[in-house]
Amino acid sequence: MGRAFNFSAGPAVMPEAVLQQAASEMLDWHGSGMGVMEMSHRGKEFISIYEQAEADLRELLAVPAHFKILFMQGGGLAENAIVPLNLSQGGAMDFVLTGSWSQKSHKEAGKYGSARVAASAQADGFTTLPAPATWQIGADSRYVHICGNETIHGVEFHELPELKALGCDAPLVVDFSSHVASRPVDWSRVGLAFGGAQKNLGPAGLTLVIVREDLIGHALLHCPSAFDYKLVADNQSMYNTPPTYSIYMAGLVFQWLKQHGGIAAMEQRNIAKAQLLYDCIDSSALYINKVSKNCRSRMNVPFFLRDESRNDAFLAGAKAANLLQLKGHKSVGGMRASIYNAMPLEGVQALVAYMREFEKTQA
Ligand SMILES: *Cc1c(COP(=O)(O)O)cnc(C)c1O
C-alpha cells in the first residue's frame, strides 16, 4: 500500500514534500556531516535552523514584535499548568467551556488559583459557542481562557472575542493547538496563544507559545525553571535542550507553508475542503454533524452514521479505500475527519466520494 489519505486528529498528516526533504537530509544536513538530531543545540548549524524557523513563523503568522515566540515541551496539556503558573499570580482566572479541551484546561488551572467558568456550552452537548456578550468575567480576572478549536467536539471560534469591547482588560489566552497556522490570528485580541505541534505544525514534542512581552516575568515562585516564560524567553528557548528535531521539522513545514502562499492561501484551501465535507454530510440521509453551522470547525469534522450499527463497516471500507484514522474520539463516538493544512483537497474529495458510495450501498 502506498501513502494513504490520513485523517488522524494528531499526531497527524505531514506534507509529503517535507517528509521527503527530511529523509534526504537525515544522514547529513547541508554537508555538515551530521543529521539534525545529532547536533548540539548550541552549535551554529542548529542555531541557524532555529532562527530560520522562528523568523518564518513570525512572518507567516504576522506575530508583532512585542510578542515572544517560545519553543517549549510538554504539549498542550502541560501548558494547562504552565499558563497559570506564569499568568495567574495566584489570582482568579476565567474559562469558557466549549468542549473537552477547555474543560481540561479549566480543571488543571484550579490547582494554581481560582479557576472560574465564564460560560459553558455543556448543556448543548458542546455543539454551540456561548456568545461573548454573555460571558461572566470577574473584574479581578488574571486572564480569560478559550480553546480556539475544540479538536474532539469540532467547534471553532471563527472570530476571536474582543475582551476590551466587553469591558475586560484581562488578556485572552487561546489554546490554538489544532488550528494554528490554518487561518490568520488577530494578535490585537490575544495575550498568549499556545499549541502542541503535532496537529498542524510538525511532530509531537514541540509546544509553541506566543506571548505578549508584558505577561512575561510574573511566574509563581514554585514554577519549574524550565517552564518559566522569562527564563525560556531570555535564553531563546534554550534554557534547557529544546526539542531540536521537532523544531527542524516544524521549520520545514513553515517553509512549505510559505511556498504555498502562506496562511491566507491555506485558509482559502481549508475553507474549500471543509465546505466540501460539510456539504456532503448535510446533503446525505445517512451522515449527521450536530454542531451549529456558525461554529463548525474547519479542521476537525466529527460526524455520525444515523445507523450506528454500520460504523465498523464504514471504517473497514474506508481503510480498504486508503482513507485512514477516521474513527471518532472515544468520548463522543462516531467518526471524525481531521483535515489539517497538510491534507490536500484530493484527500477530502476521495473521502466524500467514498462516503457517497457507502451511503448508496446502505439503501
Ligand atoms: C491535542 C490537544 C491538546 C493536548 O495536546 P498534548 O500535546 O497531547 O498535550 C490540547 N488542546 C487541544 C485543543 C488539542 O487539540
Residue share in β-strands: 15-25%
Averaged pLDDT, please? 97
Low-confidence stretches: none
Compute the separation of the termini in Å: 30 Å
How many domain units? 2
Name of the level-1 CATH class of the largest domain: Alpha Beta
Helix-strand makeup class = alpha/beta
CATH architecture label of the largest domain: 3-Layer(aba) Sandwich
Say how many strands there are: 14
Main sheet record = 7 strands, mixed
Can you describe what's shown?
This protein is α/β, with parallel strands linked by helices and 363 residues long. It has two domains: 17-259, Type I PLP-dependent aspartate aminotransferase-like (Major domain) (Aspartate Aminotransferase, domain 2); 263-361, Aspartate Aminotransferase, domain 1. 33% of the residues lie in helices and 17% in strands. β3, α4 (100-109) and β4 form a beta-alpha-beta unit. Bound molecules: pyridoxal-5'-phosphate.
A few lines on this structure:
With 363 residues, the protein is α/β, with parallel strands linked by helices. It has helices at residues 16-25, 44-60, 75-87, 100-109, 229-234, 244-259, 262-282, 311-320, 345-361; strands spanning 5-6, 67-72, 92-97, 114-120, 141-147, 149-150, 155-156, 172-175, 192-196, 207-212, 287-288, 300-305, 323-324, 335-338.
Salient structural properties:
363 residues, alpha/beta, Aspartate Aminotransferase, domain 2, Aspartate Aminotransferase, domain 1, 2 domains, seven-stranded mixed sheet, three-stranded antiparallel sheet, 9 helices, 33% helix, 17% strand, globular, binds pyridoxal-5'-phosphate
